[in-house]
Design brief:
Oligomer: single chain
Shape: elongated
Helix content: 25-40%
Structural class: alpha+beta
Order of helices and strands: EEEHEHHHE
Strand order of the largest sheet: 2-3-4
Length: 111
């Protein structure tokens, strides 16, 4: 994918996390409810020993997840990826676009 295939409005978007999360060893672990987010699902899950699927993110995913606060534009996220991760982040726009698209489709973030 080339940067030309990243929509022009993408870098101005400010995604927001939809899930609770915690950190383990400096990496984000997302807590997705096993039985859904509705009232009945939350009630049923409260009776389980472990009511969450635990989604462990890598270094780049953790950086992006922390910045999905509803206020930080994705242009700033790309800049932070390049600053904090150097060449390991490249191609930064394309990697971020695919990650955000996947997270949005899975309903882990919203705009």
């Amino acid at each position: 994918m080339s940067s030309a295939s990243v929509p022009s409005t993408f870098l101005g978007a400010c995604p927001c996390r939809r899930l609770s999360w915690e950190e383990e060893g400096g990496r984000a672990v997302l807590l997705r409810p096993k039985l859904g987010e509705g009232r009945v699902g939350r009630w049923a899950a409260s009776h389980l020993k472990n009511p969450y699927y635990r989604i462990r993110l890598d270094e780049i995913g953790t950086l992006v997840w922390r910045l999905c606060d509803g206020r930080t534009p994705l242009s700033e996220v790309v800049a932070r990826m390049r600053r904090d991760l150097g060449g390991g982040a490249e191609p930064a726009e394309e990697r971020l676009y695919e990650f955000i698209r996947t997270m949005h489709q899975a309903r882990l973030i919203e705009f």
